[in-house]
Design a protein that fits this description.
By secondary structure, the protein is α+β, with helices and mostly antiparallel strands. It folds into three domains: about 20-40 and about 215-380, Multidrug efflux transporter AcrB transmembrane domain (Multidrug efflux transporter AcrB transmembrane fold, Up-down Bundle); about 55-105 and about 190-210, Alpha-Beta Plaits; about 110-185, Gyrase A, domain 2 (2-Layer Sandwich), CATH 3.30.1360. It has helices at about 20-45, 50-55, 70-80, 110-120, 150-160, 185-200, 215-240, 250-270, 275-305, 310-345, 345-370, 370-380, 385-395, 400-405, 425-440, 445-455, 465-475, and strands at about 50, 55-65, 90, 100-105, 130-135, 140-145, 165-170, 175-185, 205-210, 270-275, 410, 420. The strands form four sheets. The chain has a four-stranded antiparallel β-sheet. Strand 11 (about 410) and strand 12 (about 420) form a beta hairpin. It is elongated. Residues about 395-420 and about 435-475 have low confidence and may be disordered.
């Protein structure tokens, strides 16, 4: 039965010998990623389009009324005029008449408005304010009075001062009169300001509203960077223990290469970089090292089976043998990723975009980056003889270790020939081992010559093949 083969058997593409061209391409891609980040920083103030997870602030998704067509630029100008900081507004792809608004504000009032509200409450005639507490960016305001205030009157007073929200009873000791003001969310405040700027009913609905403080965002950013570094570090240890120290640098360089180019793609396209992107990078790292380990395992297997072969040829053969598996595995994965990218929306679309870039680059780096780095480390720090050390260990296990150790100052030249040491002693030991294997110690002393004759004539002693042939042809009487 004949099976379909994606890569014909016997394919011998020179991966290692052409690797320098692909390394140049990788260097150019990484430099391009760095250039995109520098350009973003100089023109936009930050290297990546950090989402609120990392930058802090609020993200509000607004659905406009069906009969309202408001240009995005006018939405930005209206929100900036209302006093919001760092306003960014974009239309939501694949959504009907929806806008995604990003602002640096995390609360509907700032510290100055909080102070103005405190002054307004101090003038409340029916109860004296004993304590007032508000932290910048908080969603609640706490007050303590010496008598029971009327909540509706406090709400009206605070609304006129710019602190709109719901007044309710707070928690405190017996005999105290605590009050809490739950400020309206940033989403409701943006809805109110847009209706004021473009007419009542402009905003049909607030689809979603998220707020992250600046300190929390900075902590999430640091934790995301640490997670990537920890993942790469533990993978380095795994590869070092699973294979050999000379394999580990190739795997780590390939992982750093994949992550850098994927981040560069986000810098170039100015897609939002958030916690979902960090999750995608961790997924890419795991996928890429899995592919690299398959290649390394095949290289190690061929080194053991073909110890006399040049290690560059061994690596090229191993890469060609795993090429079909690599293309099929990555190809089937990319089919799912492309479908998700094409049909998905929002965060899942950006997640699929990151996976598409990462898996493509990760497959490429397993073939053209990881193995050349391994060979360079083997040549630079192990003299290019790492595979010969494996051969010596195998010979020792087979019982020929004494032969290799006969010359105390024996060396192995670049051509694989033995130099130095007592060559005569080595040859004598080799002859002795051959004699022990070929001569039976219990046989007759003349068995050696008889054996030689038997070797020519088979089991019938010195009788040659021609004599046996004539005997078979002699007619019977």
């Amino acid at each position: 039965m004949k099976f379909f083969e994606l890569i014909p058997p016997g394919t011998k593409y020179p991966f290692v010998r052409t690797a320098r061209h692909f390394i140049v391409i990788s260097v150019l891609l990484i430099l391009g990623s760095i250039a995109a980040m520098v350009f973003n920083y100089s023109t936009r103030g930050q290297v990546l389009n950090f989402g609120i997870d990392f930058a802090g602030g609020s993200a509000v998704r607004v659905a406009l009324a069906a009969d309202k067509e408001v240009p995005i630029q006018e939405v930005r100008e209206a929100l900036e005029a209302a006093g919001y900081e760092g306003v960014s507004a974009v239309t939501v792809p694949d959504a009907q008449n929806q806008i995604l608004v990003h602002v640096k504000d995390v609360a509907s009032i700032d510290k100055a408005q909080g102070d103005a509200c405190k002054v307004a409450v101090e003038a409340y005639p029916k109860a004296k304010l004993k304590r007032f507490s508000y932290t910048d960016g908080a969603s609640k305001m706490f007050m303590l009075f010496d008598a029971q205030p009327i909540y509706s009157e406090l709400e009206t007073l605070l609304r006129k001062a710019g602190c709109e929200g719901k007044v309710d009873k707070g928690t405190g000791k017996l005999g105290e009169f605590p009050v809490e003001l739950s400020l309206i969310g940033i989403g409701a405040k943006i809805e109110e300001d847009l209706d004021k700027a473009f007419g009542a009913g402009t905003v049909a609905d607030i689809v979603s509203s998220e707020t992250v403080g600046a300190k929390v965002g900075n902590q999430l950013k640091n934790d995301g960077i640490k997670s990537l570094l920890y993942a790469i570090g533990f993978i380095f240890l795994y590869v070092m223990l699973r294979f050999d120290l000379r394999y580990a640098p190739g795997g780590i360089v390939a992982l750093a290469h994949d992550a850098a180019i994927t981040i560069g793609a986000f810098a170039l396209t100015w897609k939002e970089f958030n916690l979902q992107t960090i999750a995608a990078l961790l997924t890419i790292i795991g996928y890429s090292i899995n592919d690299t380990i398959v290649v390394f395992d095949r290289i190690r297997e061929r080194v053991t089976l073909h110890r006399g072969e040049d290690i560059v040829e061994t690596a090229d053969t191993a890469l060609n043998e795993t090429l079909s598996r690599t293309i099929l595995t990555s190809g089937t994965t990319l089919l799912v990723v492309i479908a998700t990218w094409a049909l998905g929306t929002g965060a899942i679309k950006d997640f699929a975009f990151a996976l598409f870039i990462g898996i493509t680059v990760g497959t490429y780096s397993s073939l053209f980056i990881a193995t050349p780095v391994f060979l360079w480390v083997n040549r630079r720090f192990y003299g290019g003889l790492g595979h010969l050390e494996a051969a010596e260990a195998a010979d020792a296990a087979a019982g020929t270790g004494t032969l290799l150790g006969a010359g105390s100052n024996m060396e192995i030249g670049a051509d694989g020939q033995i130099t130095g040491g007592d060559i005569a002693a080595l040859e004598a030991q080799a002859a002795k081992l051959r004699a022990e294997k070929l001569v039976d110690p219990d046989a007759d002393p003349g068995a050696g010559s008889a054996g030689a004759s038997a070797g020519e004539g088979g089991d019938e002693g010195g009788e040659g093949k021609a004599s046996r042939r004539r005997r078979r042809q002699r007619p019977s009487s």
